[in-house]
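Hi R.,

Here's the chain you asked about this morning:
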Amino acid sequence: MKFKVWHGCSRGLCKGGCGRQDKQLNTYDWLADVPGNSYSTDLVEVQFKNTRKGYYHNVNRLDLKKGDIVAVESNPGHDIGVVTLTGRLVTLQIKKNSGIKSPEDIKRVYRLAKDVDMEKYHEAKAREHNTMIESRQIAKSLGLKMKIGDVEYQGDGNKAIFYYIADERVDFRQLIKDLAAAFHVRIEMKQIGARQEAGRIGGTGPCGRELCCATWMKNFSSVSTTAARFQDISPNPTKLAGMCAKLKCCLNYEVDTYMEAARKLPSKEVVLQTKDTDFYLFKADILSGQCAYSTDKNFPANLEYISAERAKEIIELNRRGERPLSLLENGKVKPKKPSSDLLAGADISRFDKAKKKKRPNNPRNENRGGESKERQNAPQRRENRPYRNQQQQGQRRNNYNNTPKQENRDEK
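And the predicted structure, written out as tokens:
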């Protein structure tokens, strides 16, 4: 199936509205195909390495589009970045970005990047990895409890930004002196958290998709275990933690839906009273609205599954002093489940041997306890039958009598 991109109308997606540079999804510009949108303001959004972005004035009125590589003002020198947003939406992004305190902080766009600018840019980027390894060794030699996660060189190579992670406050004044002496550039230290580091490195989450912090998330909101409790998720740290070893950001995505659905469920403190017994709320499925009630308050016993609407009906009946026959609707009694015992209808005497009936008419059977003729005549047949064992016993007796021991006994 082929998808057609519409131009000049309000239907479909505009090809200039979406874009992706340097592993990060950008804001969809749904005003990109509106005539005169790019000339409504001279502000443009420029993205640098990974998630770092800045806002600049297009004072030279350049015809900039999403994806253009530009040289922008920096302190000192200039930097190289990619245009990610133009037009009216840039003003909304600036309001959402709290990093800009005054209009004076917004610098200018110099020009579109030239070949000379791109050569310096690639030379500076080639030094980043070796600089990061050496800076880690310098920080380790100073005994600082910090981790340098990434290094970003400015487009002209005159400045380097060191991104570090630290649990405690670090005094890196001596570190800045050593780094400036080693690399001969202006040093800027910027602390980031574990979530920002995971977004800069990237990876695949347990859901099978690329990390949200590496694709579209710009601002990180705090995540607490309360979000997991509202969604009835087991408090297992290994399952709740993400790639950054912090609570997953996606725990906040559906909290509002669960909280709204939880308001429709009955309270756990309310006891449902029937004619037979009382029922306590044991557990509830928040999204489906099914409640499980137990006859015991502490452990599951005689569980009954009803809907939240039925539970509220019973609560209203109890308030009026009425007790239904059961928790089921229309007073129905819970049907008995078929027995799962395979020997429920079996006879326990099926393995006993059947005894033979006695014959009272035969006097021999009475004397012998009901034995048959064949069994009574069996000993007689044994007497008439020559047995090898008896012959052997007679030979043994004769041999025993002829032994010398027997002669000595007779002489005595």
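The longest strand covers residues 78-86.

Let me know if you need anything else.
M.
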